[in-house]
Design goal:
Number of strands: 46
Strand content: 35-45%
GO molecular function, one term: cytokine binding
Radius of gyration: 67 Å
Organism: Esox lucius
Keywords: Disulfide bond, Glycoprotein, Membrane, Receptor, Repeat, Signal, Transmembrane, Transmembrane helix
Structural class: mainly beta
Pfam family, one: fn3
Distance between the termini: 131 Å
Helix content: 10-25%
Largest sheet: 5 strands, antiparallel
Protein name: Fibronectin type-III domain-containing protein
């Protein structure tokens, strides 16, 4: 779909075509009509004749004849609307209608804030003397001033532009006698300048079979939206050939030989290129290719290269490439279809004391021996390194250092640089001498491999100074010696004295820290695993109370009643007392309250009460009651005596109480009964009980005892235990036991 303006324009002019002028009329469609077939009629009028060009479907028409001496009138009729009768008229004088420009095409190149304008003029070029350019920023309000004029018709440079701006540019030819009409060209849009450099972020060099390798290079470009693609230029370092690759992706993969290559990558836009990113791919050294090639020298102007395999059956075109250290590679290509060697004549003589690398390449193209292309064009057969002439090293190993002990030292040094060896390095000579000041010891020499930069001297004397020197040697001879270095071995006691001091200094703080930590850990473990057991003497678990209380003693035991059994057998009468003891908590709360022991009635006799006001019974009554009770509790017949147990519990008769001052009394805790007994028992009772158990002859005569024999009977009951012998009539053995105890 196309829309046209309503008001049309008609223009007629001439364009110079050497040597004549070609006349032409052009116009525009002024109707706002869509997809309509237009028909025009053009009428050209001059003084004596008239030309009619009917049924024109386009918007231009070449004129056949125009007389340059007369005025010209052109009339254009639009036949698409026959009833409108509308015409467009143009008038002019032919010599004034000769037009030069605008150019057929224009190329632009932006770089360094400059714009190069390169127009193409066509056949009218010979009549154009100069042209001018005007420019402005995209969508800017006005054109920049002043207008720039060209020095010739081929190129114009606009300077001091902004690299990041887009510009509109127009051209116009300068008017002269041959070019009377010089209109401005259409506006050209010029993109911003490419100022970023492509960044190479990956290079892969993978060896392939038969002397080839796969090289992949990848890059990125920051202003990729302005780039239309990339141009990669690859050439061999020797300069034999160069190949350019255009790609729209920032990646390139090639199959190359083992030579060195140089890569140059630039981004491309409509108005120029970016700065180039460069990368050199070094030669690929394959140890498997060494040994297949041999080089011999015929002076410094030629050499012979020979190979092992019969290559001429497969290849007839070869290339030799060689280069020295930090030198540009040179090359020679040749045919060979008879021999397995070739004499190479040199344009530049070889340098002595320089290491050269020689490489032989094979090429599959037999028609042209020169390299056609770089990618997939050749393979490397073999390589070798050689010197035209070797020399001795001109420098010695440097920076000799040592790590010494009592009897050894490890020496280290920096190798001689390759450019200073002037030949293939074969090794080092180590010179050392003991006590160099004396001058009596002989010098010792040791040969060391070329690949080593350290050596250990052993079996040395302690506390001894040694002089050390090093030198390198090649096939041409020994190089210069290094400066003398002096090292002294350590004394024998060095490690003992210093070791002890260091051990003490480092060990004391550590030991103190360990002791402190161990003590803390031990205390914590003790609290967790073994809870603290308090000392009874220091514990509050036992509460001592002093005061007056009623002490109820045990009933006396009548020893005569224990002997009333027949056959000499005796029954053990145990006096059992059930006492109602006051609550410990109540006693603890009031230490002045006296302890009162209440007895309970046993068996069928009913409860027996005792108060502090009841009269004290006599000893005879107590003995009688106790004996009677024991009898009453005994067996009633012989059969019952044989089947019943030997021990019978008797009922307790009412007892009297004795009021006196209570001794220090301890209440029950986690401690032994003996300690409680000793605390609650009055002093002297234990000794008295011991005297009673030993009989009358051993009783104590201590006058300080305050206890009467009757009272002792309460405290020391006689416990008699009879051992009954078997019934076959053997003599029975009776054992009487008397124990002293206190029942609370």
């Amino acid at each position: 779909m196309m829309w046209r303006q309503e008001k049309g324009e008609l223009d007629c002019f001439g364009k110079r075509i050497n040597p004549s002028i070609k006349w032409k009329c052009v116009w525009t469609n002024g109707k706002l009509t869509v997809n309509k077939m237009y028909r025009y009629t053009l009428v050209i009028e001059q003084k004596k004749y008239c030309q009619i060009y009917p049924n024109i479907s386009g918007t231009s028409m070449d004129l056949r004849i125009v007389n340059e001496r007369y005025n010209i009138t052109a009339r254009l009729f639009d036949e698409s609307y026959p009833h409108s009768c509308k015409e467009t008229v143009f008038r002019g004088f032919p010599p004034e209608l000769v037009r030069c420009g605008p150019p057929l095409s224009v190329k632009f190149n932006r770089h360094s804030r400059q714009l190069d304008v390169l127009p193409s003029w066509g056949m009218e070029k010979r009549y154009i003397q100069s042209y001018t350019v005007r420019y402005k920023e995209l969508k800017g309000p006005s054109w920049a001033e002043p207008t720039v004029y060209s020095q010739d018709i081929n190129k114009l440079t606009v300077r001091n532009l902004s690299s990041s701006m887009t510009y509109e540019v127009q051209l116009r030819v300068l008017e002269n006698q041959r070019c009377t009409q010089v209109p401005w060209s259409k506006s050209f849009l010029v993109q911003p300048e490419l100022t970023d450099v492509p960044v190479i972020n990956m290079v892969k060099d993978i060896p392939k079979r038969k002397g080839k390798r796969l090289v992949t290079i990848k890059w990125k470009f920051a202003a990729s939206e302005l780039s239309e693609g990339y141009r990669v230029t690859v050439k061999k370092s020797g300069g034999e050939t160069t190949e350019t690759f255009n790609t729209s992706h920032p990646l390139l993969t090639l199959i190359l030989s083992h030579s060195a290559y140089q890569f140059e990558i630039i981004a491309i836009s409509k108005v120029g290129t970016s700065p180039a990113a460069q990368r050199t791919i070094p030669p690929f050294y394959d140890k498997g290719l060494y040994g297949k090639l041999k080089v011999t020298f015929n002076g410094n102007t030629s050499f012979n290269v020979s190979w092992v395999d019969d290559l001429i059956k497969t290849y007839s075109c070869f290339a030799v490439e060689w280069w020295g250290n930090k030198e540009k590679a040179a090359h020679k290509s040749f045919y060979e279809d008879e021999k397995k060697y070739k004499v190479i004549l040199l344009d530049v003589p070889l340098q002595q004391y320089t290491r050269y690398t020689f490489t032989l390449h094979t090429r599959p193209y037999k028609d042209v021996c020169n390299l056609k292309s770089i990618n997939k064009s050749e393979s490397t057969y073999g390589s070798i390194q050689a010197y035209f002439k070797e020399g001795i090293p001109i420098s010695a190993p440097g920076n000799i250092s040592s790590n010494v002990t009592q009897s050894s030292m490890v020496l280290e040094w920096i190798a001689v640089p390759e450019e200073d060896t002037r030949g293939f390095l074969l090794g080092y000579i180590l010179y050392y001498r003991e006590n160099p000041q004396d001058g009596t010891e002989t010098e010792t020499n040791i040969t060391i491999d070329a690949g080593s930069t350290s050596y250990e001297l052993v079996d040395l004397k302690s506390s001894t100074v040694y002089k050390v020197q090093l030198s390198a040697f090649t096939g041409a001879g020994m190089g210069v010696r290094s400066s003398a270095a002096y090292f002294e071995t350590k004394p024998k006691a060095y490690f003992t004295a210093n070791g002890v001091i260091a051990g003490v200094v480092a060990g004391v703080p550590i030991l103190l820290l360990l002791v402190h930590l161990s003590s803390m850990l031990f205390k914590r473990a003790k609290k967790l695993l073994w809870p603290s057991i308090p000392n009874p003497d220091n514990s509050n678990a036992i509460q001592k109370l002093d005061g007056v209380c009623e002490l109820k003693l045990l009933d006396p035991n009548n020893s005569q009643t224990l002997e009333e059994e027949e056959g000499g057998s005796k029954s053990l009468c145990i006096i059992d007392r059930n006492e109602e003891i006051s609550s410990i908590s109540n006693i603890y709360s009031n230490s002045d309250i006296c302890l009162q022991l209440n007895t309970d009635q046993m068996g069928a006799q009913g409860p027996s009460t005792s108060t502090t006001d009841s009269p004290k019974p006599s000893s005879v009554d107590l003995q009688t009651d106790t004996a009677t009770a024991c009898k009453a509790a005994g067996p009633t017949s012989d059969m019952d005596a044989r089947t019943s147990t030997d021990m019978t519990q008797t009922a307790m008769a009412p007892n009297s109480t004795v009021a006196h001052k209570c001794p220090p009394l301890a209440f029950l805790s986690d401690y032994t009964t003996m300690e409680l007994f000793q605390q609650t028992m009055p002093q002297g009772i234990s000794a008295t009980c011991s005297s009673l158990t030993q009989g009358p002859s051993s009783q104590s005569t201590d006058t300080d005892s305050t206890l009467t024999p009757l009272e002792l009977h309460y405290i020391c009951p006689s416990l008699s235990q009879t051992a009954i012998q078997p019934s076959h009539g053997s003599a029975s053995e009776t054992q009487n036991t008397e124990e002293c105890y206190t029942v609370l």
